[in-house]
Write a structure and sequence with these properties.
It holds the Pfam family DctP. InterPro entries: DctP_fam, TRAP_DctP_sf. Keywords: Signal, Transport. There is one protein chain. Strands 1, 2, 5, 6, 7 and 8 form a six-stranded mixed β-sheet that branches. The chain has one domain: 3-Layer(aba) Sandwich (D-Maltodextrin-Binding Protein, domain 2). The chain is 46% helix and 18% strand. By secondary structure, the chain is α/β, with parallel strands linked by helices. The chain has twelve helices and eight strands.
């Protein structure tokens, strides 16, 4: 968002930023965007699922197979249709990204589903809740990641499951025994995040500013993608510096998690979300 704001300032459009959900809670932002209270948001798809449940497919474990696959999905016809769904709600997708997920655990490392048995795992949404429950963990629903330090400090969770960016910004390295990070084979799951702007506000811009906004969004997209691997390395370095063990989720263990996802979260998504089966099939058909 800072990249977009900086580039737009050069053409006389001032964008006032409210970082870290300081203006509105994430769960309230999309409604505020639709009713005109705010003009633009950068938001994970998890907070859009109540209104657009189909977007939940993009963050299911195993649906996105890696960063390169995410880029191909982003350019696919299935994403075109999902963006059209948002457009029909008067929302314009300026840019999107897939942030790899990671998790920190207390007491021991968690590499396989069996390792999580009996541990309290932070979840968001019914699909992730079912997924961790089937692994043997005890799901603890936490809608926003900013509650994680409280949950950890109160011994309410043993596994902090969130994006690599969130784990890095929360600075909880000394609260855990182990950090599990993605490998070259991919992450356990990817968090789909998007920059949305009100269609009304977008159309109110003159043509040169619209083009500049789209160009700025494209630059932000490239910057986010470039930062992915660096973010994982920095996160690992922070935990290692704190004396916390860091392990990599290799292909064999990753496959075990993804098999679990197919018979739990995927299955429920297909059954409960309109068009969910076709959506997952189309996403998986992207090579």
């Amino acid at each position: 968002m800072r990249i977009i704001a900086g580039q737009m300032a050069r053409v006389g459009l001032d964008i006032k930023l409210f970082p870290a959900a300081s203006l509105l809670r994430p769960t309230d932002q999309v409604n505020a965007l639709i009713n005109g209270s705010v003009d633009m948001i950068f938001i994970p798809a998890d907070y859009l699922q109540d209104r657009f449940p189909q977007l939940g497919a993009l963050s299911l474990p195993g649906v996105i197979r890696g960063q390169a696959h995410a880029e191909r999905v982003g350019a696919s016809t299935v994403m075109r249709d999902l963006r059209q769904m948002l457009d029909n709600a008067d929302l314009v997708v300026l840019a999107d990204s897939w942030m790899p997920g990671a998790y920190a655990s207390r007491g021991k490392c968690v590499l396989t589903p069996a390792d999580s048995k009996g541990m309290k795992a932070r979840t968001i949404g019914r699909f992730m809740t079912e997924f961790w429950s089937a692994a043997g963990a005890i799901p603890v629903t936490a809608t926003t990641s900013d509650t994680l330090p409280i949950l950890v400090g109160s011994n309410l969770i043993d596994i902090a499951n969130t994006s690599v960016t969130t784990l890095m910004t929360l600075r909880m390295e000394k609260s855990f025994a182990c950090l599990t990070v993605p490998s070259n084979d991919g992450a356990l799951w990817y968090l789909y995040e998007t920059i949305l702007v009100s269609k009304k506000r977008f159309r109110a811009l003159d043509e040169p500013r619209r083009k500049e906004l789209l160009a700025a969004a494209a630059r932000a997209h490239e910057s986010l993608n470039t930062a992915m691997s660096l973010t994982v390395r920095r996160l690992s370095g922070n935990f290692l510096a704190a004396g916390t063990e860091v392990v990599v989720l290799d292909g064999e263990n990753l496959a075990a998690w993804h098999r679990l996802a197919r018979r739990t979260a995927w299955k429920t998504f297909k059954e409960q979300v309109p068009g969910g089966g076709d959506l997952i099939d189309r996403l998986q058909a992207v090579e």
